[in-house]
């Protein structure tokens, strides 16, 4: 292609980068504004101030933010781990075995994926308060599975279909059982796919808001997105823009790190990991 | 698409493992930051659900824990910012028979609902006498339901009329005398300035309407019909409510409410007042310590706090004293608390005159006890304390009903935006809506 | 060549017709193993969705307020009658449909452009572009809602200062004060956040367009636009429809942004937000459950519309997100 055309695409690429990073840059900039500077009407702070970070990490808001951060990490990691294990078995069966009911499982996953969370929040709330799961970690981990399992199953099935299964057969010829072949040969081969799936599942759990605000009420289980809405300014009547921005930046850092480290696999995972080389 | 070459090939080479390790490390580090706390043992631990403030309630909890001498300790847990959201959280937990709720900071309008739903432990009679002694009347009313004290009055809030002395100088307003809304609107309009009021679709709008209706001698609810929600009688179609709607509408139409009248709350109002865009403002006393702090930090002109003037809430009718809003927080004890006796003991400590004074001076939240207003420390920090006390004595509570949430949300739905108010019709429409909603014939 | 189009459910080889009685030992064992492996995931999915929605259907037949459990009583379909005759429901439905149509339409065009750039971009830039584009996808919806809300806010934002030369925008424009301006900001937020997802799906679709056809069209002297219309787009139809379906369903369930940005004020309430308010805020479990069930039915309806109306082949739909 011509040089001019090439430069056009480069400009397009730069525009995309700006598009993607601009709001993130804005929230970072906002988080560095002191409370007096917040209404300066400009993009950048007049003077860089760390007061908002101090407030949420060591100050008044830390009692709200730090437990929420801990909850978010704990709940999301556990939910991700569980859904990875469950979907690993399921995806293996789907990709590898030929059995009745495969379609049912995949369709169920699809149906669950399109399920409106709000529709099931109320019944869950009612059941949870009766069985004592309201405002607990398991009380969020279980519903998070409804978010993470479908995509995990679909993504992993796609990955698993790419695995050279001859090796498994070779192992079976060598006398290994189906289970041994799965564990010894396939698991190591499948690990990258599982890991990618885990990242995507983690993103989804990390993003949840509706379950978080409906099924928790204290720092015992409240995740960060739900806690963001609870920040307050210097008094109950004052808006907490600065601390919210700082907290928003901190919860964005993990996902940005994951994106930067694993961008290629995430794209592969989201687009089925099946665009073959 | 000639050069589309598979950009997304999952590779299984080593970098992947290294990255995995890096990610694991990052996760572990983040876990470290979040420092997992360990369980504690010792004296009964009371949990106090507080509304967000500047740390005053946490400090009072610490002081009372100390004063208890090991009989109990108080831990605070924070509720959301909006009072409606605070109610949601508490009701949801209490509906789950949550025994971890010992003490709650409750916004007064929701107290009847809590009481009706039997979510509050009964107040011991002898304690009731002690905690209401010398407490301003509106706060006692706000803490009671069906004629009985069901919560402990803690602090009592009210709105004042704030003005910029230098800027109202040429308007001909005499703010040392009672003024009416009409006078204020006219003066602001003549000066081409702004009058900051809360037109946001939030509780603040109900607060405004209720104060106006009460100031005109009426009430939003004329008969709460305690035992049958369908029997509620509303005063929204009566002349006082029409007057209230007229003032809201006229202020809006005069164009003096500022550009974001329909989304402005207390916070946005105080910002435009500090900047001098608004020369008049209806707001809670928190604006005073806020101005002083900003001035001390240098983010607000040092001369600005000195320019602040204050007066009683404006009248609606020249011949009738105004009925300013009553707010604040009362303390309830959860019905499922394991230690209701200790919790009530703690509320007595929390609401002591000394703690109320501390809370007033440090956090700007006015006390419920009248004696506090004579305290030199209070008078020094809040030169307007006498006006606040007078305002509280005149204040009218918001409608007391177990269905307050429905009433308030209906009001907000019909009266927001204020530009859409038809003084002759909006009141009646709201009354009809409330009746329909209470009869469950309409959504809200 | 890409294998994207192969549906996961399609067996590698056509399975021989089987009858219950004639299952070989091996297939029986395989079936048992299959269900043993997939069963737990299947059960968990059913448990956390099917059971609650059935409970919601049941609850929706009652007049039930959480703070007043003593007066709970059966009312049949009354709640549904109330909803369907109430203007609030129809406003919320209209708002939700508006947001869905606008965001999905814009995202489709924008996402396609992004996908094209990603394909064409200079190789060294490609990784950067790809990482950048993933960031909106990965950012928490609530965070993006706060970021955009603060940007447009008249006091703390910069949008009014930057764009005061645009007619209708002034230093004190209150974006959240009017229905249309508030919806505009909500749509912008949604579009920013979810276009990357759609563009990645389209990127995968682009990879499916047979190279041969492109080359042939080029040889025939077809212009870029002609190739796009005659070759690229028809071959991407499946990918486009799948992307449309998932984004539409996702957009229809919009909740987080509205919660953060307007709280439903000024007629910006979505159906999901309405359901949330009835149950969680008002604690009207019966009425709220009825709204929830209606929302669920709407989602099913949209899904059916796509599958039957547009003949979307769902088996090609992998890598969707919830």
Automatic annotation (TrEMBL), chain A:
Residue span, ABC transmembrane type-1 domain? 69-262
InterPro entries from the xrefs? BP-dep_ABC_trans_perm (IPR050901), MetI-like (IPR000515), MetI-like_sf (IPR035906)
- Membrane spanning stretches: 7-28, 72-92, 104-128, 140-160, 185-206, 244-262
The compartments listed are: Cell membrane
| Record's bilayer topology term | Multi-pass membrane protein
UniProt entry keywords in alphabetical sequence: Cell membrane, Membrane, Transmembrane, Transmembrane helix, Transport
**Family, as annotated:** Belongs to the binding-protein-dependent transport system permease family.
What is this protein's name?
A: Carbohydrate ABC transporter permease
UniProtKB/TrEMBL annotation, chain B:
Q: Name one Pfam family in it.
A: SBP_bac_1
- Fetch the InterPro entries from UniProt: Bact_solute-bd_prot1, SBP
Arranged from A to Z, the UniProt key words for this protein are: Signal, Transport
Record-stated family: Belongs to the bacterial solute-binding protein 1 family.
Q: Identify the PANTHER family for this entry.
A: ABC TRANSPORTER PERIPLASMIC-BINDING PROTEIN YCJN-RELATED, ARABINOSE-BINDING PROTEIN-RELATED
Q: What is this protein called?
A: Trehalose ABC transporter substrate-binding protein LpqY
Lineage per the UniProt record? Bacteria, Bacillati, Actinomycetota, Actinomycetes, Pseudonocardiales
Q: Which gene encodes it?
A: lpqY
Automatic annotation (TrEMBL), chain C:
Q: Sorted alphabetically, which InterPro entries does this protein's record hold?
A: MetI-like (IPR000515), MetI-like_sf (IPR035906)
Q: Which family does it belong to?
A: Belongs to the binding-protein-dependent transport system permease family.
By its UniProt entry, which PANTHER family does this protein fall under?
A: BLR7065 PROTEIN, SPERMIDINE_PUTRESCINE TRANSPORT SYSTEM PERMEASE PROTEIN
Taxonomic lineage is:
Bacteria, Bacillati, Actinomycetota, Actinomycetes, Pseudonocardiales
Q: Name one Pfam family in it.
A: BPD_transp_1
State the SUPFAM superfamilies in the record.
Answer: MetI-like
Keywords assigned:
Cell membrane, Membrane, Transmembrane, Transmembrane helix, Transport
> Which PROSITE patterns does this entry report, sorted A to Z?
ABC_TM1
Q: What is this protein called?
A: Sugar ABC transporter permease
Region of interest called Disordered, as start-end residue ranges on this chain:
1-23
């Amino acid at each position: 292609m011509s040089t001019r055309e090439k430069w056009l695409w480069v400009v397009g690429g730069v525009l995309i980068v700006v598009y993607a990073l601009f709001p993130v840059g804005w929230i970072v900039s906002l988080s560095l504004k002191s409370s007096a500077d917040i209404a300066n009407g400009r993009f950048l702070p007049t003077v860089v101030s760390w007061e908002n970070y101090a407030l949420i990490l060591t100050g008044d808001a830390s009692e709200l933010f730090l437990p929420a951060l801990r909850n978010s990490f704990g709940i999301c990691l556990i939910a991700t781990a569980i859904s990875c294990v469950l979907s690993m078995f399921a995806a293996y069966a789907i990709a590898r075995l030929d059995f009745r009911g495969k379609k049912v499982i995949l369709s169920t996953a699809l149906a669950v994926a399109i399920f409106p969370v709000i529709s099931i929040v109320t019944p869950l709330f009612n059941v949870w308060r009766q069985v004592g799961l309201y405002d607990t970690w398991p009380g969020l981990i279980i519903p998070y599975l409804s978010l993470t399992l479908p995509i995990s199953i679909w993504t992993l099935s796609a990955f698993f279909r790419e695995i050279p299964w001859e090796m498994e057969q070779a192992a079976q010829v060598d006398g290994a059982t189906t289970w041994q072949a799965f564990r010894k040969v396939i698991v190591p081969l499948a690990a990258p796919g599982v890991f990618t799936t885990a990242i995507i599942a983690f993103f989804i759990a990390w993003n949840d808001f509706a379950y978080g605000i409906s099924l928790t009420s204290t720092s015992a289980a409240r995740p960060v997105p739900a806690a963001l809405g609870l920040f307050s300014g210097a008094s109950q009547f004052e808006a907490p823009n600065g601390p919210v921005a700082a907290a928003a930046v901190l919860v964005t850092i993990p996902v940005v790190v994951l994106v930067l480290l694993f961008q290629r696999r995430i794209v592969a995972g989201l687009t089925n990991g099946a665009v073959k080389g | 698409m000639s050069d589309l070459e598979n950009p997304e090939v999952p590779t299984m080479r080593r970098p992947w493992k290294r990255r995995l390790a890096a990610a694991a490390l990052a996760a572990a580090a983040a876990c470290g930051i979040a420092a997992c706390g360990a369980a504690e043992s010792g004296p009964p631990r009371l949990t106090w659900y507080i509304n967000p403030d500047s740390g005053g309630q946490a400090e009072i909890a610490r002081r009372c824990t100390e004063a208890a001498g090991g009989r109990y300790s108080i831990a605070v847990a924070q509720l959301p910012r909006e009072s409606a959201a605070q109610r949601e959280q508490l009701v949801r937990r209490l509906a789950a028979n949550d025994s971890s709720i010992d003490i709650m900071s409750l916004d007064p309008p929701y107290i009847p609902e809590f009481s009706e739903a039997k979510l509050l432990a009964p107040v011991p009679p002898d304690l009731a006498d002690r905690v209401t002694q010398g407490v301003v009347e509106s706060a006692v009313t706000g803490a009671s339901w069906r004629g009985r004290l069901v919560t402990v009055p803690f602090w009592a809030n009210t709105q004042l009329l704030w003005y910029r002395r230098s800027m109202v100088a040429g308007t001909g307003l005499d703010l040392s005398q009672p003024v009416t809304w009409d006078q204020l609107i006219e003066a602001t309009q003549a000066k081409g300035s702004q009058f900051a009021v809360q037109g946001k679709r939030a509780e603040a709008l109900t607060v405004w309407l209720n104060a106006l209706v009460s100031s005109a001698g009426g009430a939003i609810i004329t008969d709460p019909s305690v035992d049958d929600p369908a029997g509620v009688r509303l005063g929204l179609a009566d002349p006082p409510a029409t007057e209230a709607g007229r003032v809201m509408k006229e202020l809006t139409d005069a164009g003096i409410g500022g550009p974001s009248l329909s989304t402005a709350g207390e916070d946005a109002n105080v910002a435009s007042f500090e900047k001098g865009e608004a020369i008049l403002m209806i707001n809670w006393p928190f604006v005073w310590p806020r101005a002083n702090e900003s001035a001390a930090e240098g983010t607000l002109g040092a001369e600005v706090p000195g320019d602040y003037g204050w007066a009683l809430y404006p009248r609606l009718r020249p011949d009738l004293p105004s009925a300013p809003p009553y707010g604040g927080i009362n303390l309830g004890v959860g019905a499922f608390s394991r230690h209701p006796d200790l919790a009530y003991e703690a509320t007595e400590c929390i609401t002591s005159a000394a703690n109320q004074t501390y809370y007033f001076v440090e956090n700007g939240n006015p006390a419920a006890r009248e004696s506090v207003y004579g305290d030199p420390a209070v008078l020094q920090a809040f030169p307007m304390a006498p006006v606040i006390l007078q305002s509280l004595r005149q204040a009218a509570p918001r409608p007391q009903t177990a269905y307050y949430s429905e009433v308030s949300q209906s009001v907000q739905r019909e009266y927001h935006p204020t530009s859409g108010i038809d003084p002759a019709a909006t009141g009646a429409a709201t009354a009809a809506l409330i009746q329909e909603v209470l009869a469950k014939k309409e959504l809200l | 060549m890409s294998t994207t189009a192969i549906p996961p459910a399609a067996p590698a080889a056509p399975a021989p017709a089987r009858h219950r009685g004639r299952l070989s030992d091996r297939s029986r064992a395989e079936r048992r193993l299959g269900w043993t492996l997939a069963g737990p995931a299947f059960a968990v999915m059913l448990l956390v969705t099917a059971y609650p929605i059935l409970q919601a259907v049941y609850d929706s037949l009652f007049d039930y307020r959480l703070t007043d459990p003593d007066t709970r009583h059966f009312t049949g379909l009354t709640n549904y009658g109330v909803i369907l005759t109430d203007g609030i429901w129809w406003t919320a439905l209209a708002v939700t449909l508006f947001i869905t149509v606008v965001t999905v339409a814009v995202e489709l065009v924008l996402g396609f452009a992004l996908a094209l750039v990603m394909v064409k971009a200079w190789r060294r830039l490609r990784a950067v572009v790809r990482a950048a584009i993933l960031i909106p996808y990965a950012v928490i919806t609530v965070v993006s809602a706060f970021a955009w809300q603060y940007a447009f806010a008249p006091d703390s934002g910069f949008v009014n200062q930057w764009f005061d030369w645009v007619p209708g925008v002034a230093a004190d424009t209150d974006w959240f004060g009017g229905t249309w301006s508030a919806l505009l900001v909500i749509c912008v937020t949604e579009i920013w956040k979810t276009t990357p997802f759609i563009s990645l799906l389209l990127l995968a679709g682009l990879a499916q367009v047979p190279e041969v056809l492109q080359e042939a069209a080029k040889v025939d002297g077809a212009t870029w636009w002609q190739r796009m219309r005659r070759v690229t787009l028809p071959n991407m139809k499946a990918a486009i429809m799948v992307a449309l379906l998932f984004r539409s369903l996702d957009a229809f369930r919009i909740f987080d942004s509205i919660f953060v940005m307007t709280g439903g004020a000024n007629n910006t309430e979505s159906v999901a937000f309405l359901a949330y308010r009835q149950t969680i805020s008002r604690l009207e479990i019966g009425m709220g459950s009825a709204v929830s069930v209606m929302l669920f039915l709407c989602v099913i309806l949209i899904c059916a519309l796509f599958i039957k109306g547009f003949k979307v082949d769902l088996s090609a739909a992998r890598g969707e997100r919830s």
